């Protein structure tokens, strides 16, 4: 039966993009480059000029109303790259239309909305993937392999530093939902578990929402996670360090370079750099085509949001917050 189904799977997926800002334009570019497995048929943005510029560049139709796009073009899969506060409304309507969707992080701005979205995706039997791009970073995947192979021993600490100057594209969420969520999910991906307690100190110095934060995450065993993030550092830094009982591994998210240290040596494995977004969108297309199961699910997006909400609560209450499971 499976072999018969494979014979009739479509070769190319009809995809569309909603949100043609900085990051959405990158989605459009990647879909255009993945022309062997998908066709970008339409883009949408409330800014007509921006939508038309992207559409002209990639030879597709431009819309300012995503509902009109869904009715007229009937895409099979859609990327949602709009402001975070609009994710639920747009993605929910896409899912109710029976269309597969990748929603940029945060998948929604509350766990209640995220659970509604996941439930509707299950009811409609569509693919729903939250845009946790760092899990498609080849460097992160190499770190996970080292952990699974036992090369680090027992994992004691994970430390992430994600700092830069304020990205002007952000206007409706703070640094926790926009930036820290990356490392929350990377920790989940590496450890295959969620924290049981968080403690956070956050502040707002220059922006509408919190723009700097320090986070401590406690896990079931002896593992501790630390995250430092701000939007006030002139130089962009994206680093991860995993400390084990036998060795330490450090990763530069941007260059994908890894440094592995144990008591006998320091090694820097040579590996090819690959674009995480291209790997992520290729996976989304292949999952939508039925060629593989989604590696990241809507429930993963829900769990990341739960931790974000606990961090924000902890920073408001000035006390540790236990997560309900």
The number of distinct structural domains comes to 2
Whole-number mean pLDDT: 94
Please identify the structural class as seen in this structure.
Answer: alpha/beta
User: Uncertain runs with pLDDT below 50, 5 residues or more?
Assistant: 1-7
What is the CATH T-level topology of the largest domain? Answer: Dihydrodipicolinate Reductase, domain 2
Outline: globular
- Helix tally equals 10
Q: For the record, what CATH class of the largest domain applies?
A: Alpha Beta
Strand % is 25-35%
Order of helices and strands: HEHEHEHEHEHEHEHEEEEEEEHHE
Terminal CA distance reads: 39 Å
Cα gyration radius (Å): 20 Å
CATH architecture of the largest domain: 2-Layer Sandwich
As laid out across the biggest beta sheet, the strand order is 14-13-12-11-7-10-9-8-15
How does this structure look, described?
This protein is α/β, with parallel strands linked by helices and 325 residues long. It has two domains: 2-133 and 280-297, Rossmann fold, CATH 3.40.50; 134-274 and 305-322, Dihydrodipicolinate Reductase, domain 2. It contains ten helices and 15 strands. The protein has helices at 2-7, 22-33, 48-58, 66-73, 87-96, 111-124, 138-148, 175-191, 276-288, 298-317; strands at residues 13-18, 38-44, 61-63, 77-80, 100-104, 128-131, 155-165, 197-203, 212-218, 224-230, 232-244, 247-252, 258-262, 266-267, 321-322. The strands form two sheets. A nine-stranded mixed sheet has the order 14-13-12-11-7-10-9-8-15. Strands 3-2-1-4-5-6 form a six-stranded parallel sheet, sandwiched between helices. The longest helix has 20 residues, at 298-317.
